[in-house]
## 1
Amino acid sequence: MPMDRLFILGAVITLAAMPVARTQDAASEQMTLGKTTYMMVCLACHQPTGLGLPPVFPPIAKSPYVNGSAERFATMILKGNAGPMIIDGKPYNNIMPGQEAMLTDEKIAAVMTYVRASFGNNAPAVSPEVVKAARAKFADRKAPWTQAELDVWKDDPAPAIAK
């Protein structure tokens, strides 16, 4: 094969791989930011294993709240939640403070993505746009979520829930 064709073939292969590399780099950066944010904000309660501290802090490992609706999970982080809650048949009664004033949409999406890919969870990545939309949608809500409210919210979009 002539050298000019090899050069063109090499250039095409390189260009074809670039979007994948950029996507992988972005995903890796989001996971790194998510892990860093988790270690700084979430670790004390949910622990390095994601198993929490019964009966005070519930697990996020293999959690339907983590693996389910991305909007619901985002709003839990934004607004917090208040017990009592029953998780895996065990009672938990504490308050998770909302992080809407502390964390950006990018950091919340990153920590969600990290948690949804860790601790035995298997859910897709979350974009900052999902968090931004949830933040705007529930901007007027002041109270943390209760388990009763969260449990009626199985899939996106959110059902009509009192503010």
## 2
Amino acid sequence: MGHASRPAATQAKGTIVPRVLVVDDDPMVCVAIEVCLQRQGFEVTVADGGEAGMRALESESADFDVMLIDVFMPHMRGFESIRMFHERMPDIPIIAMSGYAFANTERAPDFLRMTIELGATCCLRKPFTPNALLTTVNECLTKPMQSARHSN
């Protein structure tokens, strides 16, 4: 793979366009993220699950700057996806997303924090605002692979 040395962001009319891969089984979440990011000038690729996300990641034209991955999906679970995506492309920041709620939050495991151990750079708890999404994506783009961060 000869593109490891070049930046993933593509050039469009003299400006850099960051490329984002969104992996989520909920089409409404995908559309909301896609519209929000495209309005801010991002190039967005949507995958409807972990397997589709892996195919997008491995395609010839895939050069992503950041990935947003849902933690709970059918078939390939988000935990598995995060681990596999991180192993395949360790230099691409991963934002783990989840809306999973617990009745007893004091004793329940924090699944988003667990994703950090598997390679996620930071986390977003659903539902999140467009501002929280943009802030988290931009932080991953400007400070890739530094300390992990948790965003509510």
## 3
Amino acid sequence: MAHEEHQPRATAEQLALDTISMARAGGMPDPYWLTDPRIARACSVLGITAAEARDLPPDAYLTGPPPAVTPTVALEVWTDGACSGNPGPGGWGWITNESKPRTGSGGDPATTNQRMEIAAALNALRSVQERPIVVVSDSTYVVNCITKRWYAGWYRNGWRNSKKESVANRDLWEELVPLATASGVTFRWVKGHAGHALNEAADALAVAARDAARA
């Protein structure tokens, strides 16, 4: 009785790569790469996107999917401002989320809380050069200005707000906005005094700087 020779079964990855290879050889139009269910299933098996599959070199199916690229984890810098009297003596502080945190702080004998919140973010971005970076602040004033692009209206209206009044703290905003809107910089709001260790640490730096400015 003759024995049939069994070929090893193709793996799911090999079948997925064959699907992509045949689609490429057949000249599948670009729009279909993003909608074809066969491509979607193949990409799911390989752990790549349809756009990545479309852009593979012609012989990529012979060597398997491209190696996974570990995304760069953004550095975080937590910032805070403090002021007594508002206006009155104030301080700002920032701290990174590194194993050996970097910190910075400063004070002003006559200022406002908003100025100190802006100054904290400004000085953090001046001092910490790594990108990508996330500025974490408990100031909705600072975060909304950047994430909601309030500054665009200020530019357009000659540094006047919706009430036709001069924008407060223009001198600080003019320095902060270009840094805050540069590539690799994002802002995130966090509730203050809600148990976030780095928020508390930034606050402590700001308070200490405020007290030193008062002395």
## 4
Amino acid sequence: MIAHGTATELQAAVDARWPLGPMVYHWVRQHVTRSPLEMQPYQACALYGLAQAYDGGHIVELGCGLGFSAAMLAWGAPNAVITSVDIDPEHVQTARASLTAYPHVTVVEGDSRDAALRDGLGPLDMVFVDGDHGPEMVRDLTWFNVLRPGGLLLVHDFNYQSARHFPDVVWGVMAFLRAIGRAQPDVLLMECWGNKGPRGLVGVVRREGEAFTCD
């Protein structure tokens, strides 16, 4: 899915593809602790929709926040094993409390840069990256290597039209795309003229033999 526009236009595009998304979003919104860094509604609905293709597989989220995005993944993939990883013990505690209604979701306290953790959880079918937004975030992109062919690496807060908001995310993803020889991603929802600056989602479906190293 490739779409550009305002948040309203992107919401309309996402709703046209996954019409149950807004209903799921509003239900989750009422039952999970709100975070000031929470994703936009169109992003949450897209996360729910994209996860459907990996229902029955193993989905990993890097950066659980307070549990909202994991809940959207859980609705999209009710038969998947979902593991959410966060280095912040307070986030982990809050997310666990918020996600008790989802027995197929496990929240793990750990460092996403830990190769043993990454390799131990693989092989995977989908990875949602929404943790470190600084220079180290590029290391989270190595989780691409434990995806099965056809698996999706999805990254939050990517928008190349305004690198000043999350520059390390933008440059990290651009370096990743160059390294694996991709001219463009498979998923791109890019918000223009956002109230808090341009934001978006970017995703790449792994092809046989593709690998990424940041060392």
